[in-house]
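Notes from hallway chat w/ T.B., transcribed later so I don't forget. T.B. wanted the structure written out for a chain they're using in a teaching module, and asked if we could keep both sequence and structure tokens in one place. Agreed to drop them here.
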Amino acid sequence: FAAGGFRDFTRIAASSPEMWRDVCVANRAALLDELDIPHPPVALTLPAAASGWLMKRADGCGGTHVEPLATLATLAGSGPPAQAYFQRHSRGRPMSA
């Protein structure tokens, strides 16, 4: 890293960790793709058919933030909660990335 490149690199490294956490959460699927980590399909908007989809909160952890979309009361009136995203259910061992 020379000249301006080093300055940009150190500026980015000095940024707020909370900001980078938010950037990573917002781009989770793209990061997993870039790192060649397989993952189920993800949608940021409410899927037309609820069957086979999970609703997750980006700010959740430990599995308590995951709910089958088909078992939730209709979201038409209130819409999904803030920070919600949708992931296709897949068989296998649950993991977090």
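Follow-up for T.B.: The chain has three helices and four strands. Might be a good example for the class.
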